[in-house]
Amino acid sequence: MTKLDLASERKFQIMRATIECISRYGYSNFSMQDVARVADVSKGIIHYYFLNKEDLMMAVLNHVSGEIEHLLAGSESIADPVRRLSNIIWICSGVVQSKREYYRINMDFWTQIDQKETVRLEVATHYSQFRQAIAATISQGIQSGVFRKGDALHFASLIIAMIDGIALQWLFDEGLFVYDDIVKLCEESVMAFLKA
């Protein structure tokens, strides 16, 4: 294993431990010592890779958002905008089930946006990227005449709001509805609204 591979693996190990600590204790209630214990490394090793707790937290936020963006990138190969948008809705909705800890961590980051400007800006950047990806698909559908005319970014914002709202309700009360049924209803509602 090269030094670069070892460094990359060690950083990932520390970020995974941080994700576990945030899931256990919340954003504000874990310490670097907690991360060191879970990662089975010294605090010095953590500080070798990350300047401070905030630097580590920003790396975790980028990692979590990057994972979701990677999932979305798989939709780019679908040519039909209706099928691609449907796929995006299911991928985004599925994150709460398949990567539950990532979604919970995002919620913890949301609680910090009033206290930490860097977190607010980073979350806003990632939401902008999600909106842009969805809006690009909607714009393609508008240009090809399958979606109604309108502001693709506004439509994308509405879709994200629906997905986040459904996910939050399900996280708070898993027995509230059958998750796949409500996602299907969301998809049908979006398509009924958008189709020309």
Q: Outline the low-pLDDT stretches.
A: none
| Main structural class | mainly alpha
Shape: elongated
Average pLDDT taken over every residue: 88
**Helix-strand pattern:** HHHHHHHHH
Outline:
This protein has helices at 3-25, 32-39, 43-49, 53-73, 81-98, 100-110, 117-143, 152-172, 179-194.
Characterization of the model:
Helix 1 (3-25) crosses helix 2 (32-39), helix 4 (53-73) packs parallel to helix 7 and helix 7 crosses helix 8. The chain has 196 residues and is mainly alpha-helical. The protein is elongated, with a radius of gyration of 19 Å. The protein has helices at 3-25, 32-39, 43-49, 53-73, 81-98, 100-110, 117-143, 152-172, 179-194. The protein has 9 helices and no strands. The chain starts with a helix and ends with a helix.
Keywords:
single chain; about 200 residues; mainly alpha
Task: Please write out the topology.
Layout: H1 3-25, H2 32-39, H3 43-49, H4 53-73, H5 81-98, H6 100-110, H7 117-143, H8 152-172, H9 179-194
Helix pairs in contact: 1-2, 1-4, 1-6, 4-7, 5-6, 5-7, 5-8, 5-9, 7-8, 8-9
